[in-house]
Amino acid sequence: MAQLLRQPDVLLLDEPTNNLDLDARHRLYSVLDDWRGCLLVVSHDRALLDRMDRIAELDGGEVRFYGGNFSSYEETVAAEREVAEKNIRSAEQEVKREKREMQQARERAARRTSNAQRNLSNAGLPKIFAGTMKRNAQESAAKADGTHAARLSAARDKLDRAERAVRDEQKISLELPQTAVPAGRTLFLGSGIRVRELFDGVDLAIRGPERIALAAPNGAGKSTLLRVIHGSLAPEGGEVKRADGRVAFLSQRLDLLDDSRTVAENLAAFAPAMPPADRMNLLARFLFRGTRAHLPVGVLSGGERLRATLACVLFAEPAPQLLLLDEPTNNLDLISAGQLESALNAYRGAFVVVSHDERFLSEVKIDRWLRLDGGKLLEAGRG
After folding, report:
1. Domain count, the chain
2. Which end of the chain is less packed: N or C, by CB atoms within 10 Å?
3. For residues 275 and 230, is the Cβ–Cβ distance under 8 A?
4. Residue 95 domain-assigned?
5. Same domain, 107 and 183
6. What is the DSSP letter of 142?
């Protein structure tokens, strides 16, 4: 904020909304909406990016500019992908056609050569004349074959270019029937919960497959309440009851896995009954293919660590019926945030998420909003 007060001609901001609560984010948005200087922002905050005039995409060491805000960028990228996929289908058909025509030409040439040899033999022509005609036929067939081979090569090159034009979205697609929770089942029931000076007299019931967003200013006790729900922190007062079954807690640090073990070894610890081949297939769906599945968790990037944690948590034995997520999109790039959204939309249990990322909360279809305010837990309107 000190830089804003100086009113510079050019303002550079590097992930300015990281670790800001929702109120602070909106204050920053308001200030930037009125900014009249040149502004360059590095951010994965989609609400902030929707306030920009242009989007610069850095990918593979190259920068490409798109006019409009982030929503316009997404629409353009989706349209480009649709065109690229159509080009792939067209190029694939062209390769098949060229292969078929090349094979048919070879078969015709073989038949002509066979017929010519039989006719020459029946006609009783001199050997030298018959040899010349045979060589001419072979040369003609070879020339035709070369023409078809060149056309097939060109079609394959076209297919290769079309495939390179398609973006690798790195999406994960899941089915999680084992996480289903009956609509009327109570997973957590707390009454009069008290923890230090943070909150006193908090009542909370979590039933069925509820999708709950928990909001509050920084320092109000959101993470503490998640730990109470999880059971890793005992309240100083009040009563809590939990249903039987696994409750999984994904902290901001994503420290649930053993850093010294590989991704595959961690999954084996969470799902020991799953056959090894099934575990490898599952990790491939989480984009850990080949040797990537055998990397130690300690060397993974933030997005990779998230995917490894999700694989272990969502396919644990038994599967979790209640997920607790504390600022899960902090420090995630846009691809990783999208992968988290896909996983949560496949999840069929209940979850409570602490997040200030409005776009993320919209994508995971929150149906209940809670707010810690003055030490009390209140039902709140959307966002």
Report:
1. 3
2. N
3. no
4. yes
5. no
6. H
Closest CA to 242 of 321, 178, 312, 315: 321
Same domain, yes or no, for 205 and 321? yes
Cα gap 98→27, rounded to integer Å: 61
**279 and 243 co-located in one domain:** yes
CA distance 322 to 89: 42
The answer on 20 and 156 residing in a single domain is no
Q: Coil, helix or strand for 168? A: coil
Q: How far is CA 196 from the centre of its chain?
A: 39
The answer on pLDDT for 128 being more than 80 is: no
What predicted TM-score, i.e. pTM, was given to this entire model?
0.76
The Cα–Cα gap between 273 and 285 comes to 19
Confidence of residue 1 (pLDDT cuts 50, 70, 90): low
Structure-token pair, residue 116? 């010519």
Query: Are 159 and 185 contained in the same domain?
Result: no
Residue 321 contacts residue 245 (beta carbons within 8 Å): yes
21, 51, 73: which is the final residue of a domain?
A: 73
Distance in angstroms (rounded) separating the CA atoms of residues 21 and 31: 16
Q: How far apart are CA 126 and CA 121, in angstroms?
A: 9
Residues 139 and 209 in one domain: no
Asked whether residue 141 is domain-assigned, the answer is yes
Each residue's pLDDT tens digit, 22-39? 889 999 999 999 988 899
Domain that holds residue 372: 177-380
Residue with token string 């930037």: 32
With beta carbons less than 8 A apart as the criterion, state whether 194 and 237 touch.
Answer: yes
CB-count exposure of residue 36 (10 Å: 0-12, 13-18, 19+): exposed
Residue 3: what are its φ and ψ, rounded to 5°?
A: -65, -35
Domain harbouring 69, CATH code: 3.40.50.300
Regarding whether 348 and 276 lie in a shared domain, the answer is yes
Q: Encoding tokens for residue 11?
A: 């303002």
Are 208 and 340 within one domain? Answer: yes
Mean pLDDT value of segment 236-251: 93
Answer whether residue 237 is part of any domain: yes
Cα separation, 46 vs 49, in Å, equals 5
Name the 3-class secondary structure at 379.
strand
More confident residue, 145 or 22: 22
pLDDT tens-digit readout, 212-239? 999 998 889 999 999 999 999 999 999 9
